[in-house]
């Protein structure tokens, strides 16, 4: 937790805030902060700043807030992610959020197991919690926009054109051929398939919709490895 | 498992091989291969090739081997990794191996919990098994050279000069400053500290030894996120 995130309604009119639970435990047990110490804080979907601890109770902490700084810049990357197995999804989502992706579409594929869509990790509460963990790691405050797209055809036919508008759209996958890679800059839409890859039909639909192949080489990475590697590569200036 | 890896002594003089256990289960249950089917195979620390299944028994499979292809190219990256908590280490190691890193040094820092060094994941057998999983994912055969360096001072004083010889040595960490990053090419030595970062003293020792700062931005990534992101970035042509 590299920032203590507050809901908008947790800041009082006098500029103080009181927190308990997981955040209290982090400040008291991990940071071992004392009265007068400063902690890094932020308002969810708002500014970052500093909290100065004024009171430490048994189960809560009160601090004065001062907000002065914008959240770190978002990455100009939209992520289209075929739903991985739920545990890998959780980790991958958190990583994408930590790295600064602000628009995420989770999509279906014939190679996504149907049962994955029933995972308790996909409830709005669980998704929000996971994204908050990603923001806390990054020191960020802005919750990404996340959309679950259970129908592949609806996504492709009705939504994809708008999603990729004004961006370079790339679809990732291993490639034996050592061809030169597109060097996208500006807004990028990055599509990452399931561990087993998209089907040939699905792949074709993306290419027809304007995506170009993008590869990190001949090695087949798992989704949770590929996503940070690709974001790391594509976010280079 | 994107390649079936064989020990050198598993190939018979007539070119056939018999496998059981985890690899047998993968071929029979996941790939659902039949007699006559081809599977991707490789000899550990040797060539890649094709196996043609000639016999399927209750608990084993026999196939004819043909080796014709070199393993995928290694990455020109040496990884120096401060030991993360054991579960994260396992994942990070597997990712680095899958991505093609062939020289890995695991090191100590004041910010590495001492107990991590007693983890059963650090036995030679566990390390080898984890690296084989990484190779199986990548379709690679060459086991990386992995060295555990329990003494920070010994590493810095006695080994570091040789390790970074003829390479650009970079030490990763978040940076608020949006300065231009070194663009290393050729051989690279990449040093990644603990989640809490190296101490100021340790950082100084690396800089004095010839490392330059390298940053993906102001966001603090966890080690297991930073390693694939950095390798993805640094392995760009």
What would the keywords be for this entry?
homodimer, 237 residues, alpha/beta, Ribosomal Protein L25, Chain P, Alpha/beta knot, 2 domains, five-stranded mixed sheet, 6 helices, 11 strands, elongated
Describe this protein's structure:
Two copies of one chain form a homodimer. With 237 residues, chain A is of the alpha/beta class. Chain A folds into two domains: 4-69, Hypothetical PUA domain-like, domain 1 (Ribosomal Protein L25, Chain P); 77-236, SPOUT methyltransferase, trefoil knot domain (Alpha/beta knot, 3-Layer(aba) Sandwich), CATH 3.40.1280.10. Chain A has helices at 21-30, 86-99, 124-138, 152-164, 200-208, 223-234, and strands spanning 4-6, 16-20, 38-43, 48-56, 60-69, 77-82, 103-107, 145-149, 168-172, 188-192, 212-214. Chain A has a six-stranded parallel beta sheet, sandwiched between helices. Chain A is elongated and about 60 Å long. Chain A starts with a strand and ends with a helix. The relative contact order of chain A is 0.15. The mean pLDDT of chain A is 94.
